[in-house]
Amino acid sequence: MPEGPSLVLLREDTERFVGRRVMRVEGNSTQDIQRLRGRTVRAIRTWGKHYLIQFDGFALRIHLLMFGSYRINERKPNKAARLSLGFSKGEELNLYACSVRFLEGDLDEHYDWSVDVMADAWDAKQARRTLRAQPDTLVADVLLDQDVFAGVGNIIKNEVLHRIRVQPESTLGALPPRKLGELVTQAREYSFDFLAWKREYVLKKNWQVHAKRICPRDGTPLSFRKSLGVAERRAFYCETCQRLYR
Asked: Nearest 5°: phi and psi at 224?
């Protein structure tokens, strides 16, 4: 599942379509996508893992789910697009294996931008207050909670917890205040590191624990859980340098 930083790259790649009219609409989405024909793109935005194309009076929300992808000015061979938008000069945006949904009215009525770790409106103090209110929640689960850390996915979760030396089954209430602060700070800072590495095509080279076997910090084998927490996502962590707070 693409994480918040990858959606920021998609937004940047498609900002060329802002101010342009949709000339052609195709796709196998069950939504009334033909209502987009003739409409002008007013803005391209993202919130967490949501890609948002804004028009007058409504917006189109795209969620790339687990295996979604996109192509600009090219198509996947032998693969039907969920949504294909054509513009002038033969340019097009093709979206595959994604969720398509219309959001009526103002986007500000649908989203709290202060919980998006990539947004200028990100509110770290609010995040800390939210964490303190749920002491029994596992840190692995709260990092994947899109109402708290919109845009954080499983890769960022594993890497942040290794960076701050905390095991994923630690509970929020057991974390010292300094560690709680590090959790909030690094959820955002690592997301921007992720974005920079993604731009330079070196993201996987900078993974410390995700999909790895040996801890680069102390050289011991990493622990692996195929399904951990309420979210039941994969966890990679080091029992030597990451502490369990319970």
From this structure: -130, 130
Domain positions in the chain: 4-111, 114-237
Q: Give the single-character DSSP code of 109.
A: G
Instruction: Determine the Cα angle at 176 with ends 171 and 181, to 5°.
Output: 95
Q: Which architecture does CATH list for 4-111? A: Alpha-Beta Barrel (3.20)
Backbone angles phi, psi at 30, to 5 degrees: -85, -5
Do β-strands 92-96 and 69-72 pair in parallel, antiparallel, or remain unpaired?
antiparallel
User: pTM score, two decimals?
Assistant: 0.93
> Are 142 and 172 a contacting pair, CB within 8 Å?
yes
Mean pLDDT in consecutive groups of 10 residues from the start of the chain, 246 residues: 92 97 97 97 97 98 93 94 96 97 96 97 97 97 97 97 98 97 98 97 97 95 94 95 96
CATH architecture of 114-237: Orthogonal Bundle (1.10)
